Amino acid sequence: MDPRWALLALFAALLVPTEAIGSKWNITVRGQLKCKNKNVANKLVELWDKESIKKDDLLESFTTEAQGHFFIVGYETQISKIKPYIRIKHECGATAGCHKVTEIAIDQMWVGKQKDLAFVYLDKDSTGKTDEVMTVREECPPRNRALV
Questions:
Q1: How far is CA 88 from the centre of its chain?
Q2: Tell me, what DSSP letter sits at residue 26?
Q3: Three-class SS of residue 113?
Q4: Which of 34, 122, 131, 144 suits 66 as a labelling partner, its CA being 20 to 30 A distant?
Q5: How close are the terminal C-alpha atoms of the chain, in Å?
Q6: In degrees rounded to 5, what are phi and psi of residue 124?
Q7: Strand, helix or coil at 19?
Q8: What is each CA distance from 82 to 99, 109, 118, in whole angstroms?
Q9: Spatial CA neighbour of 88 closest among 49, 129, 40, 37
Q10: What is the pLDDT of residue 41?
């Protein structure tokens, strides 16, 4: 084959959108938010896909209802299997004026299925389950410091 044709074929393949050559992946995640054993209503729960090179993709979001329940279905078309996690920004246990960000990575074995997180205790640092990795960090706005 003429090397010019091979180069042209490679260039054309790079122009094909991921949707044309990838797979449509999905995951459903449900649970109930708790803070100190009380239901957490009206809190935004986001479902993300962790990316290696580019910025993570927001798949879907859901605001918890009165009893703290959430139910999210997210889809993504890409070549490799998605790496799902949920993110919740909240004030449970946070220093005054700050908020916490809780992220729970969900094992890829749940892609294409429904993962029931059951209770998500925002005042804890772990879910206690082996197929979930929970990280919690506190974010505070920068302080205004007067010049002396």
A1: 9
A2: E
A3: coil
A4: 131
A5: 74
A6: -110, 165
A7: helix
A8: 28, 10, 22
A9: 40
A10: 97
Four-point Cα dihedral 121, 126, 129, 135, nearest 10: 110
Stretch (H or E) spanning 74: strand 69-78
Spatial distance between the Cα atoms of 76 and 60, rounded to a whole number of angstroms = 10
**In terms of residues, how long is the chain?**
148
CATH architecture label of 17-139: Sandwich (2.60)
Q: Answer whether 0.90 is exceeded by the pTM.
A: no
Element (H, E) at 15: helix 3-15
Residue owning tokens 């054993």: 37
Q: CA–CA separation, 125 vs 97, rounded Å?
A: 20
pLDDT band at 128 (very low <50, low <70, confident <90, very high): low
User: Quick check: helix, strand or coil at residue 40?
Assistant: coil
Segment 74-102, tens digit of pLDDT? 999 999 999 999 999 999 999 999 999 99
Q: For residues 90 and 40, is the Cβ–Cβ distance under 8 A?
A: yes
Distance CA 137, CA 125 (A): 9
